[in-house]
Amino acid sequence: MTTVPATAVEIARAVASGETSAEDIVRAALDRIERENGDIGAFTDITRERALREAKTVDRARAEGRKLGPLAGVPYAVKNLYAIAGYSTRAGSKISAADPPAQDDALLIARMRAAGAVLLGALNMGEYAYDFTGENAHYGPSRNPLDTARMTGGSSGGSAAAVAAGFVPVSLGSDTNGSIRVPAAFCGLYGLKPTYGRLPRTGTFPFCDSLDHLGPFARTVADLALVYDAVQGHDASDPVCARQPIAPAAPEIAKGGTGLRIAVATGYFRQDAEPAALAALDKAADALGAAAEVEIPRAAVARAAAFLITNAEGSALHLERLRRRPADFDPDTRDRFLAGALLPASWYVSAQRFRRLYEADMAELFRRFDVILAPSAPTSAPKLGQKTIAIGGKDVPLRAHMGIYTQPISFVGLPVAAVPVREPGALPYGVQVIAAPWREDYCLRIAATLEAAGLNAA
Amino acid sequence: MTRDDTSTLIDTAAANLGLHIAPEWKDNVTMFFEVARGMARLVEETGAAAASEAAPVFTPRSVE
Questions:
Q1: Which residue of A has its CA nearest to B34?
Q2: Across A230-258, average pLDDT
C-alpha cells in the first residue's frame, strides 16, 4: 500500500523526484475516500477516472523529462459550486443538480491542472452557499473529522472536511461572508480568503456577486501558499477580477512577522465570543508580541450591510427557482431567500453606499497597522443539528451568528488568512489574520509565524 | 410597522413577484424580513444613503 505524504509540498517533491508516482498517490487517496467518505460526508462526486487520467499525464510528463508543475501529483478536490466538465454543478442544491453537465472546468480547476494537481472530486456544501453550518438537507451534513457529531462549519463544509480527514492535502472553497474562515476554524485548518477580485470566479456558481471570493484550504501554510500561487492571475471574463500582477506568496512566508505592525481587534470583536475563543486570539497575539489594540469602527453596521447585500443579491439570483420550485429548496435556505426577495431596494442601495464609507474607515486603520487579528467565529464547532448558541448569556440563532466576526471583514474584500489555534485534546478555534487589500503576503507571513509557534497543537 | 403590517407587506410583495409562501413557511420568512429591517435601520442611521458613491461602480469595457 502506498503511503501518501501528508502535505502537498512533500507529494510534489516525491513525484518530481520519482520516489513515487502520481498514479500511486492518487489511487491510495481514492481508495481511502471510497472507504471512509461515508463517515465524513465530504465528497458528493468522486472523479476516479478523470483523476487517474490526470495522474498518468503527470507521470508521463516526468518519464519524458518534461518540467513538472509545482503541484505535480497533488490530489485535491473542490466545493461543488466549481464547474467540473462532465458533471452538473450542484452548488449544494437538489434543483441545480439536475442541470446539464458543465462543458468546461472552472478556471481555477484548469489552473490547478496546469500546475500538475489531480482533481479527485466535488465536495459537499451548504445549499447555494447560504450557510455557516455545513449541513445540507439533500446530501446530508459534512461531518467534522475532529468529532463527527459536530459541524464542519459552512458553507465550504466538505472542502474543510476533506482536508481535515486527510483525504486530500488541499482543497478549494469559496467565501462570501465567512465560508472559508468559519470551516477552517472549526476543523483546525488554514484557509485563505484573498482580496476581493484577486482570484477569478470564472466557472463557479455565484451566490452574491458583490461579496463572492474563492480560496484554498490546507493543513500547512506552505501548502496554502503553494495553491494560492498556482491559481493567481487576471481573467477578464470575471468583471470583478482586478488587473493585479501575480504576487507569489510562497517565497514570502519565511520572512515571518519581522517589521510588520500588528494590532488585535477589540470592541465589537471581543463581544459575544466564548472565553476560549478570546483566549485563542490572545495566545496568537502573545506569540507575535502584538500588544497594540485597535477598535474597528462601525463593524456592526458593516455586518448588517453585508447581510442585506447577501440577502438581496442571493435572492434575486434565485428568484426564478423560488417561483417555480420553492419546495425543492433546503428549508434552512429557502425562507431566507424568500424574505430577501422582498427587501426594499433602498435597503440594498444604502448598504452598497455604506460599503464605500467603511472601506475608508478600514483604509485609515491600515495606515497605522499592517495586520489586524480577530476571532474567526464566536465558538468552536457546534453539534450537528444544533439551532442556537449561547452568546453573552443568551441563546441566539446559530446560523445568524456564526459570521459575526467574518462578515465585517469580507464586506470590504480584505485578505484574510484563517489560522487554527488548538489546545491539546480540545476543539480548535480560529483567528483571522487580516491585512490591507492585495497584501495576502502579510497574512501568510503571520500565519506561518503562528504555525511555527505551535499554536495548532492537536 | 406592526406585525400585521409586515405580514400584509410580505403577502402583497410576494404576490407581485409571483412567489408562493406556504403558510408553514410564513413565520420564518417574516422573522428573516424583520431581521433585515433591523439591519437596514443600522445602515440608514449612518446617513450612507446620501453620503457616498455605491460600491458596485460599473466600468464599461472596450470592444475587442
A1: A339
A2: 96
A159, A179, A210, A376: the catalytic one is A179
Cβ within 8 Å, pair A335-B29: yes
CB–CB of A137/A127 below 8 Å?
A: yes
What does the block give as the cell for A356?
464605500
Radius of gyration of chain A (CA): 20
Q: Is B17 on the interface with A (CB under 8 A)?
A: yes
Q: How far, in Å, CA of A379 to CA of A348, rounded?
A: 30
Under the banding of pLDDT at 50, 70 and 90, the label for residue A410 is: very high
Residue A138 lies in a domain: yes
Are B17 and A353 within 8 A, CB to CB?
A: no
B42 touches chain A (CB under 8 A): yes
Contact criterion met (CB < 8 Å) for A351 and B43: yes
| Mean pLDDT, all residues of chain A | 97
Which tens digit of pLDDT belongs to each residue from A206-219?
999 999 999 999 99
Q: Is A156 a catalytic residue?
A: no
Are residues A429 and A314 both part of a single domain?
Answer: yes
CATH number of the CATH domain containing A333: 3.90.1300.10
What is the secondary structure of B17-56 as a DSSP string? HT----HHHHHHHHHHHHHHHHHHHHHHTTTHHHHS--S-
Q: A150 with A92, same domain?
A: yes
Q: Chain B residues with CB inside 8 Å of A301's CB? A: 42-43, 45-46
Structural domain for A438, as ranges: 256-452
Single residue among A253, A285, A320 that ends a domain in this structure? A253
Q: How far is CA A232 from CA A77, A152, A197, A352, in A?
A: 18, 27, 11, 27
SS3 content of chain A, % helix, strand, coil (to 5): 40, 15, 40
pLDDT in tens, A76-111: 999 999 999 999 999 999 999 999 999 999 999 999
A422 in the same domain as A309: yes
A221-231 vs A8-17: helix crossing angle, rounded to 10: 70
Q: What is the pLDDT averaged over residues A426-434?
A: 98
**Whether residue A77 sits in one domain with residue A173:** yes
Specify the number of domains making up chain A: 2
Question: For A140-185, what is each residue's pLDDT tens digit?
Answer: 999 999 999 999 999 999 999 999 999 999 999 999 999 999 999 9
